[in-house]
Design goal:
This protein has 127 residues and is α/β, with parallel strands linked by helices. It is built from six helices and four strands. The longest helix has 14 residues.
Length: 127
């Protein structure tokens, strides 16, 4: 159903399984949606497009958060402090404004953001 990177699929499946069961609440935004839909749109893969749309915007334990003025201001502060890309700063701002406990990524460089615990997929496989 989703793009499956062979190295990470088992771990990602565990995360989504916990979200589906309500053990973890996920927060996402239009940034994630825009990033996830690029490959399905390029491939004209309607089923994968719909899978991402359903998962990110209609899942019971996933909150799709609108990027508002407060998130924009916080993203600017994060960019100024950590020199992160705009998309990453917006994602962090949404997570922080939503009261998230952690930020899941596979970009180790984002650990420099100290306002939120950054969980890096690769590190789970190495431990």
């Amino acid at each position: 159903m989703y793009e499956e990177h062979p190295r990470y699929i088992a771990l990602v499946d565990k995360v989504f399984d916990r979200v589906d069961k309500g053990l973890i609440k996920a927060v996402t935004s239009a940034v994630t949606l825009a990033e996830c839909l690029v490959i399905p749109y390029r491939a004209s893969d309607v089923n994968l497009q719909q899978a991402f749309l359903d998962t990110l915007t209609r899942s019971r334990y996933t909150s799709f958060v609108v990027i508002d003025q407060q998130a924009g201001e916080r993203a600017a502060q994060l960019r100024a402090r950590y020199n992160v890309r705009l998309a990453d700063a917006l994602q962090f701002a949404v997570a922080l404004n939503s009261g998230c406990d952690a930020f899941l990524t596979n970009d180790h460089d984002l650990k420099r953001v100290k306002e939120l615990r950054v969980a890096v997929l690769k590190e789970f496989l190495e431990s």
